[in-house]
Amino acid sequence: MQRALALAKRAQDEGEVPIGALVVLDNEIAGEGWNRPIAARDPTAHAEIQAMRAAAAKVGNYRLTGATLYVTLEPCDMCVGAMFHARIARTVYGAKDPKKLVLKNPVAIEGGVLAGECGAILSQFFAARR
Questions:
Q1: How far is Cα 82 from Cα 6, in angstroms, rounded to an integer?
Q2: What is the pLDDT of residues 22-71, one digit of tens each?
């Protein structure tokens, strides 16, 4: 967590919200990241995402099975979803996020558009892989 704090300070020095993260795999740092959404002009450039991207590039696989992710702030839902897809085994965070699950800009979501066709292409893809 000390390393994550150092990465958070790097984000702060760059004018970003000070959050740092790292992925540890087999007792070694596989990837590091700090908040960069402003600099990267990327709403997904959270510290956790940056750390997972770096780790995935290093190990040559998007699955980080068995890894632990350390982050200075409780992860948002987007980052938790990415951790799930990356197969992160454990997440350790510092500060609790008091604003978690408070949607400032709710998004309207509409489903069912071309549902049959959208489902069929996915079914065909996975049937061919099995």
A1: 23
A2: 999 999 999 999 999 999 999 999 999 999 999 999 999 999 999 999 99
48 is catalytic: yes
Residue partners of 90: CB distance under 8 A and separation at least 6: 67, 68, 69
Considering the candidates 32, 48, 110, 117, report the single residue annotated as catalytic. 48
CA distance 36 to 30: 19
Give, rounded to a whole angstrom, the gap between the first and last alpha carbons of the chain: 41
Q: Decide if 82 contacts 55 (C-beta within 8 A).
A: no
Q: Which residue has the tokens 């699950």?
A: 101
* CB 33, CB 53: distance < 8 Å: yes
Q: Does the pTM of the predicted model rise above 0.90?
A: no
